Amino acid sequence: MTKPAYQRVLLKLSGEALMGDDQFGINRATIERMVADVAEVQKLGVELAVVIGGGNIFRGVAPGAQGMDRATADYMGMLATVMNALALADAMRQQGITARVMSAIGIEQVVEPYVRPKALQYLEEGKVVVFAAGTGNPFFTTDTAAALRGSEISAEIVLKATKVDGVYTADPKKDPHATRYESITFDEAIAKHLQVMDATAFALCRDQKLPIKVFSIVKPGALKRVIMGEDEGTLVHV
Ligand SMILES: Nc1ncnc2c1ncn2[C@@H]1O[C@H](COP(=O)(O)OP(=O)(O)OP(=O)(O)O)[C@@H](O)[C@H]1O
Ligand SMILES: O=c1ccn([C@@H]2O[C@H](COP(=O)(O)O)[C@@H](O)[C@H]2O)c(=O)[nH]1
């Protein structure tokens, strides 16, 4: 059997994708399908750490946060990712995956705090680690948290699983003429202001020489194809 292309990955799961076709929150069938995709690659022996977004519940820059103090709104966004992480870990448990949620902000009664050596130990034991609360700091995003945690755990790649199937010349949801890149350098993505990820996340991955693969979590089997090194999504590289 062909071996996976990676041994340890950081999977950034879109919070917004958790809504499925709903307007808000977590769609049960959608989270179960995402977890089934994760279970499939975990069976291949790949060490998986997950950063989950919060856009299905709250974003600090959302219209609903207008007029709020930005840092307060961002803390609400981070708490939203904790809720998603709890739901994700529970859905994993129901599908036979052992997961541990680690939070970047202290809420010990709910989840354990992020401690790097402990996270590495869990990964070596074959557990899925779900990093919650982003970086723990306002004015950042969970994409930057993915770049940060991916670097800390020496992941070979950051897999950004989102609602579109790669990086486009413009937002494909707004511009029907946008075309998809097979690969693109970090410098080009930053210079062209491509909004699929924020510039801080791109810059951190570039500096750490940590490649990113952007692909669709909505497309069945895409995660496994990426893990197997097959042609899927867009590679962002140095
Ligand atoms: N150049 C581009 N190529 C691809 N997608 C783009 C581009 N510019 C903007 N986008 C948009 O970026 C979105 C992905 O980033 P975004 O941070 O909004 O969502 P996410 O990370 O999937 O969700 P969450 O923040 O909830 O985790 C895509 O759904 C797409 O509409
Ligand atoms: O490090 C971080 C990560 C996130 N936030 C806030 O949470 C929301 C949700 O995260 P998304 O990446 O948009 O899914 C984000 O809009 C921020 O408000 C943060 O402050 N710091």
Automatic annotation (TrEMBL):
It comes from the Bacteria. InterPro entries: AceGlu_kinase-like_sf (IPR036393), Asp/Glu/Uridylate_kinase (IPR001048), Uridylate_kinase (IPR011817), Uridylate_kinase_bac (IPR015963). Its EC number is 2.7.4.22. Keywords: ATP-binding, Cytoplasm, Kinase, Nucleotide-binding, Pyrimidine biosynthesis, Transferase. Pathway: Pyrimidine metabolism; CTP biosynthesis via de novo pathway; UDP from UMP (UMPK route): step 1/1. It is found in: Cytoplasm. The keyword Nucleotide-binding applies. The keyword Kinase applies. ATP binds at residues 12-15, 55, 59, 162, 168, 171. It is an enzyme of class 2 (transferase). Residues 8-216 form the Aspartate/glutamate/uridylate kinase domain. It catalyses: UMP + ATP = UDP + ADP. Its main location: cytoplasm. Inhibited by UTP. CDD domains: AAK_UMPK-PyrH-Ec. Catalyzes the reversible phosphorylation of UMP to UDP. Homohexamer. Belongs to the UMP kinase family. PANTHER family: URIDYLATE KINASE, URIDYLATE KINASE PUMPKIN, CHLOROPLASTIC. This is Uridylate kinase.
